[in-house]
Amino acid sequence: MSNAVVCRKALESPRLHRRGQRAISRMRVGGRWGVRHHEASRISRFVTSRSLMSHTLFPMKLNHLSFPSSDPASTATFFETYLGFTTSPVSGHWILKRPGFDVVIEDVDADTPHWPSSFHVGFELPSRADVESLHARMLADGVTMETDVIDHARGSRFFCRAPGGVMFELNTRADAAPEYLSTFD
User: CA Rg, the chain, in Å?
Assistant: First the structure.
């Protein structure tokens, strides 16, 4: 029996509401709890957790991230040098591109952003050797390192800061513990 049929039958029940009154009822349909909103003069609508999710699970991809920087040229160079983005300045900000993913670096003049201490953006590399190699290269180039390479249950990683203050996590899932493998795409 569909949700609409269940709601119409519930609406016909005089003990659930009186004409002209608004009611909200919790009901179980098809094994799921939901909320039914109705007025006596209108067809009710039944909302389950599944139907709420269906409105947000339409095809979508991450389009871009935007970061403020007091030194957008240096921040853009960091993305280009270490993360493989191509860069182009566009009237006060920089557009950084990788296949299927853009980053916008906004110029905030001398007003350095204050990031929450744990805020970071993570990029995944194919192997621990790649993580170690990039860490060594960044360290040699004087990038501000927050950590050395860390052995972590979800995969090896390190943290560093780009010019402008954004923290990055560079990691691999190749050496993640077995219990985490099923949590990755």
Answer: 26
